[in-house]
Amino acid sequence: MTNSLQSLFQAIAQSKDEQALRSQLLIEAREHFAAKRSGLFFFDQIPFADRRLQKALQFGLSTEHNPVVHYLVERHAPVHEALVVSPKVWNLICPRADHWHVMAGPIVSNGQLVGTIGFTREQTMPAFNTQNLVDLSALCLHLSTWVATIRSQHHHLRANCLTPRELQIAELVALGRTNAEIGTELWITENSVKQALKRMFRKLEVSSRAEMVAQLSTNTKVHSFNNQAN
What range defines the domain where residue 165 resides? Predict the structure, then answer.
């Protein structure tokens, strides 16, 4: 393992959040892979305020139109363009001069592809090789572990912001109870249950009962919520 690769691992470990990760990792990683450009994307955080940016990203990250992304999603393994297409075909897909050579690796959390890290080189630069893929694979393993840990901690902090009553409601939601049934069991009105759920959704940054239960279950079994509250 090279010292520069160890340095990348240290940069990942020292990052406190995803913004810090980008600032601490990308410049050094770009130097390690002798890349012209680099990017770190988390799919749930890509800004879509700009319509042109939205269309470009949707096309560029499309498994239908981009064979590199298709390979990445299908195999959860690092890839460079030469593994999946000929230079002529790639030039048609991505005509940018600074994207003549590309390499991308997966960031995986809970068995799902949640992001990617990518690097590009110009036509005058050498293509990415097997050793680059090996190094990127190691980098992606560290990134995936970091993301899983950070997001787990974040979800845990969110869960801790719920009140004992809200935790009781969450447990009953997980058991499939309706708002009316929850109200009856907890001796509160159905409207009180609805209002509590709205507050809980905001705290947990979710939009559905199923998403709420899934998030809370990431770190703590929902059926133990009452025991934690008491």
Answer: 161-229
